[in-house]
From TrEMBL:
GO MF annotations in UniProt: lyase activity
Encoding gene per record: ltaE
UniProt keyword list: Lyase, Pyridoxal phosphate
Record note on quaternary structure: Homotetramer.
Entry EC no(s): 4.1.2.48
CDD domains: TA_like (cd06502)
Cited SUPFAM superfamilies: PLP-dependent transferases
Domain Aromatic amino acid beta-eliminating lyase/threonine aldolase intervals: 5-286
Source superkingdom: Bacteria
Source species: Chromobacterium amazonense
Protein name: Low-specificity L-threonine aldolase
Lineage of the organism: Bacteria, Pseudomonadati, Pseudomonadota, Betaproteobacteria, Neisseriales
Signal peptide from the UniProt entry: none
Pfam family, one: Beta_elim_lyase
C-alpha cells in the first residue's frame, strides 16, 4: 500500500531529480575541503540567506546545538521561546554540548515580547549572574505560525543594544518566506546565525545548513568536527540539498494552500476547534473540544491509507508536503467526517 503520510514533512522522499543529482554528484573528501558538491551547496545557501558563509550539517538539531556551542560559553543563559524546538525536542543538548541553560519566555503565537526579553538580559559584572549568551528565535514556529518581520527586527535591535547575538532556528525558514511573500534573506538578516533544514518540506533525504559570518562559520566548522559531524564524500547527500534550494523552495506555497484547504475542511467538522487563519504554513494544528475515540479515529485513518500521529493532550497535527495532494485531503476529510459524526 502507498501510504499518505501526514505525520510530518520530515517523511518526504527525495524527488526523482534529487536521486539523479545524487547519482551524478562529483565528490571528494569534505574534511580535506575537497568536495565540490558540498562547497556548491554551502555557497548557494550562504548566498540565498545573504550570509558570508554556510556549513552543511547532518540535521537541524545538530545545526542549532552547534550554533549554541559556537556562540556561548559554559554557564551562559540562552533566551528562547517556551514552546520552541530547542526547549522541547533537543534532548536537553544545550546543557550537554554548549554547557548552557535555557531561559524561556512564553510567547504570544510564538512571539516573545521585547520587554520580556529585555527583563531577562544579563550582561553586567555581578558575579552571581549568568551571562546572556544568545537569544534564539524560531521562524516559522513549530506551532505553525510565522513571526512577523517587525517582531524579528525589534528583537534584533534589542539584542544589538546589549551586544547579544541572535540565532534563528529556521528549520522551516523557506515556509516562513513563502508565507510572508519575501526572500529568505529578508528574514535571515535579523539573525547573526541561521539554521534551516533541507530535509523537511524541501524534501532532501538528510541535512541542514548553519549560516552566518565567515569567522563564526570557521569556528563552527572546527566544532562540527569535534562533534563527529565532519563527513567525507558528503557530496552524495549535499546534491539533493541543491535541488531542494533551486527547485523545491519555490513550490512550498502549494503545501500551504493544501494545508489551508485541509484546515477549512476540518473546521467544519464536529468536535474540532481550529481557526484556519492560524494555519500559516504546512502544519495544521487543531484541538478536539469533546471526548473522541482516538483509537477508532487512528484505525479508520490507517485503514484508509493515512499515517498520522495520534492526538496528544487533546491536540492533533497534520502536515502537508509534496507527496500529499488535494485529492488525498478530500479523502482524509471524508474519513474524519465519518468517524467524528458517529
Ligand atoms: C525539525 C526541527 C528542528 C530539528 O531538525 P532535525 O533535522 O529533526 O534535527 C529544529 N527546529 C525546528 C523548529 C524543527 O521543526
Amino acid at each position: 500500500m502507498q501510504w499518505i503520510d501526514l505525520r510530518s514533512d520530515t517523511v518526504t522522499q527525495p524527488t526523482p531529480a534529487m536521486r539523479q543529482a545524487m547519482f551524478d554528484a562529483p565528490v571528494g573528501d569534505d574534511v580535506y575541503g575537497d568536495d565540490p558538491t558540498v562547497q556548491k551547496l554551502e555557497a548557494l545557501a550562504a548566498d540565498t540567506l545573504g550570509k558570508e558563509a554556510a556549513l552543511f550539517v547532518p540535521c537541524g538539531t545538530f545545526g542549532n546545538q552547534l550554533a549554541l556551542y559556537t556562540h556561548c560559553r559554559r554557564g551562559d543563559e540562552v533566551i528562547a521561546e517556551d514552546n520552541s524546538h530547542l526547549v522541547w525536542h533537543e534532548a536537553g543538548a544545550a546543557a550537554v554540548i554548549a554547557g548552557a541553560h535555557m531561559r524561556t519566555i512564553e510567547g504570544e503565537g510564538g512571539v516573545m515580547a521585547v520587554e520580556a526579553i529585555e527583563r531577562r538580559i544579563r550582561v553586567g559584572d555581578d558575579i552571581h549572574e549568568p551571562r546572556t549568551g544568545l537569544i534564539c528565535l524560531e521562524n516559522a514556529h513549530s506551532n505553525g505560525r510565522v513571526l512577523p518581520l517587525s517582531a524579528m527586527a525589534d528583537t534584533a535591535a534589542l539584542a544589538r543594544a546589549y551586544d547579544v547575538p541572535v540565532h534563528l532556528d529556521g528549520a522551516r525558514l523557506f515556509n516562513a518566506a513563502a508565507h510572508l511573500g519575501c526572500e529568505a534573506s529578508e528574514i535571515a538578516r535579523h539573525a547573526d546565525s541561521v539554521m534551516f533544514c533541507l530535509s523537511k518540506g524541501l524534501a532532501a533525504p538528510v541535512g541542514s545548513i548553519l549560516a552566518g559570518r565567515a569567522d563564526f562559520i570557521a569556528q563552527a566548522r572546527r566544532k562540527r568536527k569535534l562533534l563527529g559531524g565532519g563527513m567525507r564524500q558528503a557530496g552524495v547527500i549535499a546534491a539533493p540539498g541543491i535541488v531542494a534550494l533551486t527547485e523545491m523552495a519555490a513550490r512550498l506555497d502549494e503545501d500551504h494552500q493544501n494545508a489551508r484547504y485541509l484546515a477549512e475542511g476540518l473546521a467544519k467538522l464536529p468536535c474540532i476547534d481550529l481557526d484556519p487563519a492560524d494555519v500559516h504554513i504546512n502544519l495544521v494544528w487543531f484541538r478536539f473540544n469533546a471526548e473522541i475515540d482516538a483509537s477508532e479515529l487512528m484505525s479508520a485513518l490507517k485503514q484508509a491509507g493515512f499515517l498520522a500521529n495520534p492526538p496528544h493532550q487533546g491536540a492533533m497535527r497534520l502536515v502537508t508536503h509534496w507527496q500529499v495532494s488535494r485529492a488525498d485531503i478530500d479523502r482524509l476529510l471524508e474519513v474524519m467526517q465519518r468517524v467524528l459524526s458517529d
